[in-house]
Specification:
single chain, 404 residues, mainly alpha, Growth Hormone, Chain: A, 16 helices, 75% helix, globular
Length: 404
Protein backbone atom coordinates (compact mmCIF):
# COMPACT_ATOMS: atom_id res chain seq x y z
CA UNK A 1 0.00 0.00 0.00
CA UNK A 2 1.42 3.35 -1.02
CA UNK A 3 1.81 6.11 1.62
CA UNK A 4 -0.81 8.24 -0.17
CA UNK A 5 -3.35 5.41 -0.20
CA UNK A 6 -2.61 4.67 3.45
CA UNK A 7 -3.34 8.29 4.43
CA UNK A 8 -6.57 8.29 2.40
CA UNK A 9 -7.84 5.11 4.04
CA UNK A 10 -6.69 6.21 7.51
CA UNK A 11 -8.62 9.47 7.08
CA UNK A 12 -11.70 7.47 6.03
CA UNK A 13 -11.58 5.48 9.28
CA UNK A 14 -10.82 8.63 11.30
CA UNK A 15 -13.90 10.43 9.96
CA UNK A 16 -16.13 7.37 10.31
CA UNK A 17 -15.38 7.03 14.03
CA UNK A 18 -15.34 10.79 14.63
CA UNK A 19 -19.03 10.77 13.70
CA UNK A 20 -19.79 8.10 16.30
CA UNK A 21 -17.63 9.63 19.01
CA UNK A 22 -19.31 13.03 18.58
CA UNK A 23 -22.59 11.82 20.12
CA UNK A 24 -22.36 8.32 21.58
CA UNK A 25 -20.34 9.04 24.73
CA UNK A 26 -22.25 12.14 25.81
CA UNK A 27 -25.76 11.25 24.67
CA UNK A 28 -26.66 9.92 28.13
CA UNK A 29 -26.02 13.31 29.75
CA UNK A 30 -28.13 15.08 27.11
CA UNK A 31 -31.02 12.64 27.43
CA UNK A 32 -30.91 12.73 31.23
CA UNK A 33 -30.59 16.44 31.90
CA UNK A 34 -32.02 18.18 28.85
CA UNK A 35 -34.72 15.86 27.47
CA UNK A 36 -35.31 14.25 30.89
CA UNK A 37 -35.84 10.75 29.49
CA UNK A 38 -36.20 7.91 31.96
CA UNK A 39 -33.40 5.47 32.71
CA UNK A 40 -35.13 2.73 30.74
CA UNK A 41 -35.49 5.04 27.74
CA UNK A 42 -31.80 5.96 27.91
CA UNK A 43 -30.92 2.26 28.00
CA UNK A 44 -33.05 1.64 24.90
CA UNK A 45 -31.41 4.58 23.15
CA UNK A 46 -27.96 3.11 23.74
CA UNK A 47 -29.27 -0.28 22.62
CA UNK A 48 -30.04 1.21 19.19
CA UNK A 49 -26.49 0.47 18.06
CA UNK A 50 -27.09 -3.19 18.90
CA UNK A 51 -30.19 -3.18 16.71
CA UNK A 52 -28.09 -1.56 14.01
CA UNK A 53 -25.44 -4.27 14.40
CA UNK A 54 -28.06 -7.01 13.98
CA UNK A 55 -29.90 -5.44 11.04
CA UNK A 56 -27.05 -3.83 9.09
CA UNK A 57 -25.63 -7.13 7.71
CA UNK A 58 -28.85 -7.54 5.75
CA UNK A 59 -28.49 -4.01 4.39
CA UNK A 60 -24.82 -4.23 3.47
CA UNK A 61 -24.49 -7.97 2.91
CA UNK A 62 -27.68 -9.08 1.21
CA UNK A 63 -28.82 -6.18 -0.95
CA UNK A 64 -26.56 -3.17 -1.25
CA UNK A 65 -23.16 -4.89 -1.09
CA UNK A 66 -24.09 -6.96 -4.13
CA UNK A 67 -24.98 -4.04 -6.40
CA UNK A 68 -22.93 -0.99 -5.33
CA UNK A 69 -19.22 -0.27 -5.19
CA UNK A 70 -18.11 -0.23 -1.56
CA UNK A 71 -16.92 3.40 -1.53
CA UNK A 72 -20.19 4.59 -3.09
CA UNK A 73 -22.30 2.66 -0.63
CA UNK A 74 -20.26 3.99 2.30
CA UNK A 75 -20.66 7.54 0.99
CA UNK A 76 -24.41 7.12 0.46
CA UNK A 77 -24.95 5.74 3.96
CA UNK A 78 -23.09 8.65 5.57
CA UNK A 79 -25.02 11.21 3.50
CA UNK A 80 -28.29 9.62 4.57
CA UNK A 81 -26.95 9.46 8.12
CA UNK A 82 -26.17 13.19 8.06
CA UNK A 83 -29.82 13.92 7.35
CA UNK A 84 -31.01 11.54 10.06
CA UNK A 85 -28.64 13.04 12.64
CA UNK A 86 -29.95 16.51 11.84
CA UNK A 87 -33.50 15.26 12.29
CA UNK A 88 -32.55 13.62 15.60
CA UNK A 89 -31.17 16.92 16.89
CA UNK A 90 -34.66 18.44 16.55
CA UNK A 91 -36.54 15.76 18.48
CA UNK A 92 -37.66 16.19 22.08
CA UNK A 93 -40.02 13.23 22.54
CA UNK A 94 -38.86 9.64 22.92
CA UNK A 95 -41.55 8.28 20.57
CA UNK A 96 -39.93 10.13 17.65
CA UNK A 97 -36.32 10.32 18.87
CA UNK A 98 -35.95 6.55 19.34
CA UNK A 99 -37.16 5.36 15.88
CA UNK A 100 -35.04 8.05 14.22
CA UNK A 101 -31.99 6.92 16.20
CA UNK A 102 -32.59 3.28 15.22
CA UNK A 103 -32.83 4.26 11.56
CA UNK A 104 -29.55 6.14 11.87
CA UNK A 105 -27.65 3.40 13.70
CA UNK A 106 -28.67 0.86 11.06
CA UNK A 107 -27.10 3.06 8.39
CA UNK A 108 -24.03 3.78 10.52
CA UNK A 109 -23.25 0.26 11.77
CA UNK A 110 -23.28 -1.00 8.18
CA UNK A 111 -20.32 1.31 7.63
CA UNK A 112 -18.15 -0.67 10.07
CA UNK A 113 -18.00 -3.63 7.74
CA UNK A 114 -17.63 -1.43 4.65
CA UNK A 115 -14.59 0.45 5.98
CA UNK A 116 -12.97 -2.89 6.85
CA UNK A 117 -13.80 -4.39 3.46
CA UNK A 118 -12.50 -1.36 1.59
CA UNK A 119 -9.25 -1.36 3.56
CA UNK A 120 -8.65 -5.10 3.19
CA UNK A 121 -9.36 -4.94 -0.55
CA UNK A 122 -6.52 -2.47 -1.09
CA UNK A 123 -4.07 -3.81 1.52
CA UNK A 124 -1.08 -5.73 0.23
CA UNK A 125 -0.10 -6.97 3.69
CA UNK A 126 -3.34 -7.04 5.68
CA UNK A 127 -1.70 -8.31 8.88
CA UNK A 128 0.55 -5.26 9.04
CA UNK A 129 -1.45 -2.57 7.26
CA UNK A 130 -5.00 -3.22 8.45
CA UNK A 131 -4.38 -2.52 12.20
CA UNK A 132 -2.48 0.67 11.32
CA UNK A 133 -5.30 1.97 9.15
CA UNK A 134 -7.91 1.07 11.77
CA UNK A 135 -5.96 3.00 14.43
CA UNK A 136 -7.53 6.04 12.81
CA UNK A 137 -10.75 5.04 14.53
CA UNK A 138 -9.31 5.54 18.02
CA UNK A 139 -7.79 8.86 17.01
CA UNK A 140 -11.10 9.97 15.52
CA UNK A 141 -12.96 9.03 18.70
CA UNK A 142 -10.41 10.94 20.81
CA UNK A 143 -10.67 14.06 18.65
CA UNK A 144 -14.47 13.95 18.74
CA UNK A 145 -14.42 13.84 22.55
CA UNK A 146 -12.02 16.76 22.71
CA UNK A 147 -14.13 18.86 20.32
CA UNK A 148 -17.37 18.09 22.19
CA UNK A 149 -15.71 19.01 25.47
CA UNK A 150 -14.08 22.19 24.10
CA UNK A 151 -17.37 23.41 22.58
CA UNK A 152 -19.29 22.37 25.74
CA UNK A 153 -21.82 20.27 23.82
CA UNK A 154 -22.27 17.48 26.39
CA UNK A 155 -25.70 18.74 27.44
CA UNK A 156 -26.83 20.03 24.06
CA UNK A 157 -28.48 18.74 20.89
CA UNK A 158 -25.59 20.41 19.08
CA UNK A 159 -23.60 17.18 19.54
CA UNK A 160 -25.86 15.65 16.90
CA UNK A 161 -25.35 18.68 14.64
CA UNK A 162 -21.58 18.22 14.98
CA UNK A 163 -21.98 14.53 14.10
CA UNK A 164 -24.26 15.48 11.18
CA UNK A 165 -21.67 17.85 9.74
CA UNK A 166 -18.94 15.22 10.16
CA UNK A 167 -21.14 12.58 8.48
CA UNK A 168 -21.77 14.94 5.56
CA UNK A 169 -18.03 15.45 5.12
CA UNK A 170 -17.41 11.70 5.46
CA UNK A 171 -20.05 10.94 2.84
CA UNK A 172 -18.57 13.22 0.21
CA UNK A 173 -15.01 12.15 1.06
CA UNK A 174 -15.93 8.46 0.73
CA UNK A 175 -17.07 9.03 -2.85
CA UNK A 176 -13.50 10.08 -3.73
CA UNK A 177 -11.92 6.84 -2.45
CA UNK A 178 -10.43 4.25 -4.84
CA UNK A 179 -12.96 2.11 -6.68
CA UNK A 180 -13.79 -1.03 -4.72
CA UNK A 181 -16.20 -3.42 -6.45
CA UNK A 182 -18.95 -5.01 -4.33
CA UNK A 183 -17.42 -8.00 -2.59
CA UNK A 184 -20.63 -10.06 -2.73
CA UNK A 185 -21.43 -9.64 -6.42
CA UNK A 186 -22.27 -12.92 -8.09
CA UNK A 187 -22.06 -15.07 -4.96
CA UNK A 188 -24.79 -16.96 -3.18
CA UNK A 189 -25.84 -15.77 0.25
CA UNK A 190 -28.27 -16.88 2.91
CA UNK A 191 -29.61 -15.64 6.21
CA UNK A 192 -27.93 -18.63 7.85
CA UNK A 193 -24.53 -17.53 6.57
CA UNK A 194 -24.95 -13.87 7.53
CA UNK A 195 -25.98 -14.72 11.08
CA UNK A 196 -23.14 -17.18 11.46
CA UNK A 197 -25.46 -20.11 12.12
CA UNK A 198 -23.11 -22.48 10.29
CA UNK A 199 -20.77 -22.03 13.25
CA UNK A 200 -23.23 -23.42 15.79
CA UNK A 201 -21.43 -26.75 15.60
CA UNK A 202 -18.58 -25.13 17.58
CA UNK A 203 -20.92 -24.85 20.56
CA UNK A 204 -20.68 -28.62 20.96
CA UNK A 205 -17.27 -27.96 22.50
CA UNK A 206 -17.85 -26.94 26.13
CA UNK A 207 -15.08 -24.34 26.29
CA UNK A 208 -16.27 -22.57 23.15
CA UNK A 209 -19.81 -22.53 24.53
CA UNK A 210 -18.48 -21.05 27.80
CA UNK A 211 -16.60 -18.44 25.78
CA UNK A 212 -19.72 -17.45 23.81
CA UNK A 213 -21.92 -17.21 26.92
CA UNK A 214 -19.33 -15.15 28.79
CA UNK A 215 -18.82 -12.92 25.74
CA UNK A 216 -22.55 -12.25 25.76
CA UNK A 217 -22.66 -11.48 29.48
CA UNK A 218 -19.57 -9.25 29.51
CA UNK A 219 -21.44 -6.87 27.20
CA UNK A 220 -23.58 -5.91 30.22
CA UNK A 221 -20.69 -4.21 32.07
CA UNK A 222 -19.63 -2.61 28.78
CA UNK A 223 -23.13 -1.19 28.35
CA UNK A 224 -23.15 0.21 31.89
CA UNK A 225 -19.93 2.08 31.15
CA UNK A 226 -21.08 3.60 27.86
CA UNK A 227 -24.57 4.45 29.12
CA UNK A 228 -23.67 6.08 32.41
CA UNK A 229 -20.00 7.07 32.65
CA UNK A 230 -20.41 10.52 31.13
CA UNK A 231 -23.59 11.11 33.17
CA UNK A 232 -21.69 10.05 36.30
CA UNK A 233 -18.81 12.44 35.66
CA UNK A 234 -21.05 15.39 34.84
CA UNK A 235 -23.23 14.76 37.88
CA UNK A 236 -20.08 14.92 40.01
CA UNK A 237 -19.15 18.21 38.29
CA UNK A 238 -15.99 16.83 36.69
CA UNK A 239 -14.83 19.48 34.23
CA UNK A 240 -14.37 18.55 30.56
CA UNK A 241 -15.71 15.06 31.18
CA UNK A 242 -15.81 14.08 27.49
CA UNK A 243 -12.17 15.10 27.03
CA UNK A 244 -11.07 13.17 30.12
CA UNK A 245 -12.88 10.07 28.87
CA UNK A 246 -10.63 10.01 25.80
CA UNK A 247 -7.92 8.65 28.14
CA UNK A 248 -9.71 5.35 27.51
CA UNK A 249 -9.07 5.55 23.76
CA UNK A 250 -5.39 6.35 24.32
CA UNK A 251 -5.28 3.25 26.51
CA UNK A 252 -7.05 1.34 23.74
CA UNK A 253 -4.26 2.11 21.28
CA UNK A 254 -1.54 1.17 23.80
CA UNK A 255 -3.03 -2.20 24.73
CA UNK A 256 -3.82 -2.98 21.11
CA UNK A 257 -0.10 -2.68 20.41
CA UNK A 258 0.77 -4.74 23.51
CA UNK A 259 -1.70 -7.55 22.75
CA UNK A 260 0.47 -9.40 20.18
CA UNK A 261 3.42 -9.22 22.60
CA UNK A 262 1.46 -10.53 25.59
CA UNK A 263 -0.39 -13.32 23.78
CA UNK A 264 2.57 -15.76 23.56
CA UNK A 265 3.18 -15.31 27.30
CA UNK A 266 -0.35 -15.63 28.65
CA UNK A 267 -2.24 -17.28 25.77
CA UNK A 268 -5.90 -16.64 25.07
CA UNK A 269 -7.24 -17.73 28.46
CA UNK A 270 -4.84 -15.53 30.40
CA UNK A 271 -5.62 -12.50 28.22
CA UNK A 272 -9.39 -13.02 28.51
CA UNK A 273 -9.16 -13.45 32.29
CA UNK A 274 -7.11 -10.26 32.54
CA UNK A 275 -9.83 -8.45 30.60
CA UNK A 276 -12.57 -9.68 32.95
CA UNK A 277 -10.42 -8.75 35.94
CA UNK A 278 -10.03 -5.26 34.47
CA UNK A 279 -13.83 -4.91 34.24
CA UNK A 280 -14.21 -5.96 37.89
CA UNK A 281 -11.46 -3.55 38.96
CA UNK A 282 -12.94 -0.69 36.92
CA UNK A 283 -16.40 -0.90 38.46
CA UNK A 284 -14.98 -1.69 41.88
CA UNK A 285 -13.07 1.59 41.75
CA UNK A 286 -16.13 3.51 40.57
CA UNK A 287 -18.35 2.01 43.27
CA UNK A 288 -16.08 3.27 46.07
CA UNK A 289 -15.08 6.55 44.42
CA UNK A 290 -15.92 9.59 46.51
CA UNK A 291 -15.60 12.97 44.82
CA UNK A 292 -15.41 14.66 48.21
CA UNK A 293 -12.18 12.88 49.05
CA UNK A 294 -8.75 12.89 47.49
CA UNK A 295 -9.60 9.88 45.31
CA UNK A 296 -9.71 11.35 41.82
CA UNK A 297 -6.99 8.88 40.86
CA UNK A 298 -9.60 6.12 41.13
CA UNK A 299 -11.71 7.78 38.48
CA UNK A 300 -8.79 8.24 36.08
CA UNK A 301 -7.56 4.69 36.65
CA UNK A 302 -11.06 3.32 35.95
CA UNK A 303 -10.98 5.14 32.61
CA UNK A 304 -7.37 4.23 31.83
CA UNK A 305 -7.96 0.46 31.99
CA UNK A 306 -10.34 0.73 29.03
CA UNK A 307 -7.73 -0.78 26.72
CA UNK A 308 -7.57 -3.94 28.84
CA UNK A 309 -11.35 -4.01 29.22
CA UNK A 310 -12.04 -3.78 25.50
CA UNK A 311 -9.02 -5.18 23.66
CA UNK A 312 -8.43 -8.13 26.01
CA UNK A 313 -12.07 -9.21 25.68
CA UNK A 314 -13.39 -8.23 22.26
CA UNK A 315 -10.28 -8.09 20.09
CA UNK A 316 -8.87 -11.20 21.78
CA UNK A 317 -12.29 -12.79 21.41
CA UNK A 318 -12.26 -12.32 17.63
CA UNK A 319 -8.74 -13.76 17.52
CA UNK A 320 -9.83 -16.79 19.57
CA UNK A 321 -12.80 -17.41 17.29
CA UNK A 322 -10.51 -17.22 14.26
CA UNK A 323 -8.18 -19.73 15.92
CA UNK A 324 -10.89 -22.22 16.85
CA UNK A 325 -12.88 -22.22 13.61
CA UNK A 326 -11.81 -24.12 10.53
CA UNK A 327 -11.39 -22.20 7.29
CA UNK A 328 -14.79 -23.32 6.00
CA UNK A 329 -16.75 -21.80 8.87
CA UNK A 330 -14.41 -19.00 9.94
CA UNK A 331 -16.57 -16.26 8.47
CA UNK A 332 -19.70 -17.80 9.97
CA UNK A 333 -18.03 -18.06 13.37
CA UNK A 334 -17.08 -14.37 13.32
CA UNK A 335 -20.66 -13.55 12.33
CA UNK A 336 -21.97 -15.56 15.27
CA UNK A 337 -19.57 -13.81 17.66
CA UNK A 338 -20.61 -10.38 16.36
CA UNK A 339 -24.30 -11.25 16.64
CA UNK A 340 -23.88 -12.45 20.24
CA UNK A 341 -21.78 -9.47 21.38
CA UNK A 342 -22.42 -6.33 19.31
CA UNK A 343 -26.01 -7.41 18.70
CA UNK A 344 -27.81 -9.36 21.41
CA UNK A 345 -25.31 -8.69 24.21
CA UNK A 346 -25.21 -4.92 23.74
CA UNK A 347 -28.99 -4.70 23.40
CA UNK A 348 -29.69 -6.63 26.60
CA UNK A 349 -26.87 -4.82 28.40
CA UNK A 350 -28.07 -1.36 27.35
CA UNK A 351 -31.64 -2.13 28.36
CA UNK A 352 -30.59 -3.52 31.75
CA UNK A 353 -28.21 -0.64 32.46
CA UNK A 354 -31.03 1.79 31.74
CA UNK A 355 -33.43 -0.01 34.07
CA UNK A 356 -30.85 -0.12 36.88
CA UNK A 357 -29.87 3.52 36.39
CA UNK A 358 -33.48 4.62 36.45
CA UNK A 359 -34.28 2.57 39.54
CA UNK A 360 -31.52 4.27 41.56
CA UNK A 361 -32.23 7.84 40.44
CA UNK A 362 -34.11 10.66 42.12
CA UNK A 363 -35.06 14.19 41.15
CA UNK A 364 -35.38 15.49 37.59
CA UNK A 365 -33.65 17.75 35.08
CA UNK A 366 -30.52 19.44 36.42
CA UNK A 367 -31.41 18.23 39.92
CA UNK A 368 -31.38 14.52 39.14
CA UNK A 369 -29.01 12.40 41.23
CA UNK A 370 -28.10 8.72 41.26
CA UNK A 371 -26.90 6.28 43.89
CA UNK A 372 -23.79 5.52 41.90
CA UNK A 373 -22.17 3.17 44.38
CA UNK A 374 -25.09 0.77 43.99
CA UNK A 375 -25.32 1.21 40.21
CA UNK A 376 -21.62 0.42 39.73
CA UNK A 377 -21.68 -2.53 42.16
CA UNK A 378 -23.99 -4.47 39.84
CA UNK A 379 -21.60 -4.71 36.83
CA UNK A 380 -18.69 -5.14 39.27
CA UNK A 381 -20.38 -8.17 40.84
CA UNK A 382 -21.26 -9.63 37.44
CA UNK A 383 -17.65 -9.22 36.29
CA UNK A 384 -16.37 -11.10 39.35
CA UNK A 385 -18.83 -13.95 38.75
CA UNK A 386 -17.84 -14.15 35.08
CA UNK A 387 -14.17 -14.19 36.04
CA UNK A 388 -14.68 -17.18 38.37
CA UNK A 389 -16.93 -19.13 35.99
CA UNK A 390 -14.61 -18.59 33.03
CA UNK A 391 -11.52 -19.56 35.01
CA UNK A 392 -13.13 -22.82 36.15
CA UNK A 393 -14.91 -23.94 32.98
CA UNK A 394 -12.81 -22.67 30.08
CA UNK A 395 -10.00 -24.89 28.80
CA UNK A 396 -7.84 -23.55 26.00
CA UNK A 397 -7.29 -26.06 23.23
CA UNK A 398 -5.22 -26.31 20.09
CA UNK A 399 -6.19 -24.50 16.93
CA UNK A 400 -8.60 -26.18 14.55
CA UNK A 401 -7.14 -28.26 11.77
CA UNK A 402 -7.83 -27.03 8.20
CA UNK A 403 -10.32 -29.85 7.53
CA UNK A 404 -11.72 -30.14 11.07
Amino acid sequence: MSPVLFVRLWLMVFLHYFVWGAWYVTMGTYLTRTLQFSGAQIGLAYGSTAIGAMVSPFLAGVIADRFFATQRLLGLLHLVGAGLLYAISLQTTFTVFYPALIAYTISYMAGHGLTSSLTLHHAKNSGREFPLVMSGGSVGWICAGLVVSYLELENSASMFLLASGAALATGFYSLTLPHTPPKGAGTAISVRTILGLDALRLLQERSFAVFIVCSFLVCIPLSFYFSWMNVFMNELKVENAAAKMTIGQVSDVIFLILLPLLLPLFRAKGILLAGMLAWAARFGLLSVFDSQRDSLWMLYLAIAVHGMCYDFIFVMGRMYVDDRASEKIRGAAQGLHALVTLGAGMFVGSWLSGVVGGAWASGSGDQITHQWNIIWMIPAGLSVVLLIVFALLFQERRAAAPDE
